[in-house]
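Pilot study result, target chain (214 residues):
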Amino acid sequence: MITALTRYYQRFALAGLLCLSSPALASVTFTVCHDFGCRDETLVTLDTAEWATVRALFVAANAKEERLLIRYALGYMEYLAGRYSPVHGDVARNLPPGVNHRAELGPGQLDCIDESINATRFLRLFEEEGLLQYHRVLDRAYRRSFVTQHWAAEVEDVTSGRRFVYDTWFADNGRPPVMVSSPRWYNLYIGANTLNLEDGSRSTSHRDDALKQR
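Predicted structure:
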């Protein structure tokens, strides 16, 4: 079935077709975590055409543009990985509506550990492939309260030193993640529905209740 998300990413595929003549392009292989705490991993290979569509996204003229493109690229990588792994069924946060325990789930749901590892792996791949001009990839961001803890991916602007978090836990598979400055993300009292993204949009989670730690 052709979904709205599929149609959305088909536009990226068209752009990628223009890059296929480059002799340097090849397939890429990586693993994705799923099923809470990276309990399971699936090996994913994107063919030359698929990887070309990812590379075609990175045409930033400055750091701000690149941060937005990273956001879309992370969502797109999730979408592509979902073609070859159970993560296509992942929904925002830990459990779908109406599900009370993860034992009720089939394979493919992600918690923040899975999400942050996957997003950081995607970012490292972008970095290794020379797609990031204005940012470097950091170790995963981590915060905790008295009873909970949470992880996400993080980058640093190589010129200004400002840091930004990409939190894919707040979005269903394939949807662009929350992107916010690191100091704002570390504030435990800010609700997800008030996490203003740099492009002026909001969290792409379907359940924007109060921001909770895991």
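One observation from the pilot: The CA atoms of residues 89 and 108 lie 6 Å apart. A full batch analysis is planned for the follow-on phase.
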